[in-house]
Amino acid sequence: MEIEIRKMELEDIPRVAELERRIFSMPWSTQSFETFLQSKDALYLTAKKDGVLAGYCGFFQSFDEADIMNVAVREEFRGQGIAYRMLCRLMELGRKRGILRYTLEVRAGNETALHLYEKLGFKSAGIRKGFYEKPREDAVIMWTDGAEAEA
User: Fold this and answer.
1) Minimal CB count within 10 Å: which of 49, 71, 103, 150?
2) Which residues pair with 101 in a beta bridge?
3) Which domains does the chain have, with CATH numbers?
4) Are 104 and 142 contacting, i.e. CB atoms less than 8 angstroms apart?
5) What is the dihedral of CA 108, 133, 90, 63, to 10 degrees?
6) What does DSSP assign to residue 146?
7) Is 69's pLDDT higher than 60?
């Protein structure tokens, strides 16, 4: 079935926040998503498959750089390239906004995410010791210029 990737809208937030609570040990609140979605410096996308929220991602822009803040895919939709397609689209839209470089943090033990980000051209730039809680884990800091990410 076709995957629809589009800009997140306020009406998406309850489903996004529910998915956030399912996936992350320290989830963002509904209010956090509302605040970011209303910021001119943020851009969030959703992916829907057969009308069901399959995932979401977003960034916060600072001049010509952006910090990718959230990447989530519903468990039953993983392994179908949804995160890759969302991130390619996010970075394509970011380039149109003048973004030249992207950064993110990922759990050091999240091999699947590390491989995804490497496929998108991200490279490790260091470690943030004890960055994550519940459970405590280091974060890998990654950067890319986004040139390799093409949908």
Assistant:
1) 150
2) 65
3) 3-144 (3.40.630.30)
4) yes
5) -100
6) S
7) yes
